[in-house]
Write a structure and sequence with these properties.
Endonuclease III, domain 1, 4-stranded mixed β-sheet
Amino acid sequence: MITSSLPASSRRLDELRVAQLKDETCQKLTDYVVKGWPSKKVVDSLCARYWQNRYEILVQDRLLMRGCRIIISKSHQAEVLNQIHEGHLGITKCRARARCSVYWPGISKVIEEKIKSCTACIQESSNRHQPLIPTSFPERP
């Protein structure tokens, strides 16, 4: 099972399942996965951003996923974003961390905005050391 390899406890997966059941977009996506996707012109506006990835979206263990990544409902996106950003690892590492387990449309841009507005990350990036400059050789010993 795909869900057994996810970096989340079974309790956390249950929370995400419940959140997806309450989320209108997730419900419509589940319907599309089960019944088939309509043409792009008739797809619900809530699901339009998922259209280009429609063949990757599936329901596994009653959990809506894009490939091996959990689709996060709107209500949990801020919380998951904070967990991804925990440790202030920078844009590249946070994106890589997200790519392993979670998805929602625009997640990459949201991660970038979060890090660019984080005072701890800004301070850390400005504290980077300057490259070492070689000293000149002495003329005499």
